[in-house]
Design goal:
Layout: H1 2-9, E1 16-19, H2 26-33, E2 37-42, H3 45-54, E3 62-66, H4 72-78, E4 84-90, H5 95-98, H6 127-133, H7 136-147, H8 152-163, H9 171-181, H10 192-202, H11 205-219, E5 220-230, H12 233-246, E6 250-251, E7 260-261, E8 267-269, H13 279-284, E9 292-298
Parallel strand pairs: 1-2, 1-4, 2-3, 4-5
Antiparallel strand pairs: 5-9, 6-7, 8-9
Helix pairs in contact: 7-8, 7-10, 8-9, 11-12
């Protein structure tokens, strides 16, 4: 799927592209190799430092930006960038973060129950803060809403009962409790959905994505391409609905005498349906199994 994403963005010499999820720098490296100038966004300072070293050979064509990607408009305006030729967003958790026990994202490795994308921000609540202080009703809500966990209420009740004697501190403490509460269903670990929900809640991922989707039509230049990789149904639904809303020239309703121009009309869908990973890609990288890529192009401004 990286090949399809890079091809969709049409990187070339002279083009300016924003990779809003820099991570280890893999996508950005491909864009730079094609000759583009790339602004790489990441709120994780470790990712910025790692990618900056990896991409140092490209000199001034790589510009790291230590910021959450919802700050795209502010950060690029400060740097004198009015419009972009392309934007890439990969909404998957970085493998470097997932595989680092001290970051607290994985239910397979012992580590502090953290899950903050920006581990250096002391103002952010950690996953431990949430599970140790939120009421059962609120925990159940996010487990169901963000994780689509059908045992959300049962898990939330058990968490509240357990923490009254022993507050949660580590990833495996929580994962073990969920494993005792939830019957195993297929190959997925029983804690998968709850950990996803907590990560989304800790990092305010849905509101951040919503803000970013709203800013992108203003930041993309005419003909600029936008490629977004999603990994779960919540974020994919949000992207799909946003693309649909912005790709309809006219709006109609049974109560209206005639169709009206759509004030949000801004995109042409490059592909009507999302790109999906091949069997070979899934074999090489099992984490890509649930990935979907949606691509849109900014229409000329009138």
């Amino acid at each position: 799927m990286p090949d399809e994403c890079i091809a969709a963005l049409q990187p070339a010499e002279g083009k300016v592209i924003a990779d809003l999820t820099l991570g280890g720098g893999g996508h950005t490296e491909r864009l730079l190799e094609a000759g583009a100038t790339v602004y790489g966004f990441d709120q994780d300072l470790e990712a910025i430092q790692f990618a900056s070293e990896r991409l140092a050979r490209f000199g001034s064509r790589f510009i790291p930006v230590h910021s959450n990607f919802c700050g795209i408009e502010r950060e690029l305006t400060l740097r004198g960038v009015e419009h972009l030729d392309g934007v890439l967003i990969d909404l998957g958790v970085s493998s470097r973060q997932l595989d680092a026990p001290e970051r607290g994202f994985s239910f397979m490795r012992e580590g502090p129950l953290d899950m903050r994308m920006d581990a250096n921000d002391p103002t952010m609540q950690t996953a431990a803060d949430l599970v140790n202080t939120w009421e059962a009703e609120e925990l159940a809500r996010i487990f169901f809403q963000y994780g689509e966990e059908k045992f959300s209420r049962k898990i939330a009740r058990e968490i509240v009962s357990y923490r009254s004697l022993h507050p949660f501190q580590t990833t495996l403490e929580l994962a073990d409790l969920i494993e005792r509460v939830v019957p195993k269903r297929g190959p997925k670990h029983p804690a998968t959905r709850v950990f996803q929900a907590l990560r989304i809640a800790v990092n305010h991922e849905m509101s951040v994505l919503e803000q970013t989707l709203d800013a992108l039509p203003r930041m993309l230049g005419d003909g600029g391409r936008l490629a977004i990789i999603t990994f779960h149904s919540l974020e994919d639904r949000m992207v799909k609905l946003d693309f649909r809303k912005r790709s309809q020239e006219m709006l109609d309703h049974e109560s209206w005498p005639e169709p009206r121009p759509n004030p949000d009309y801004a995109y042409r869908l490059v592909k009507r349906k999302p790109l999906l990973p091949t069997d070979e890609e899934i074999r090489v990288n099992p984490r890509s199994r649930s990935a979907k890529v949606r691509v849109a192009e900014r229409l000329p401004r009138k």
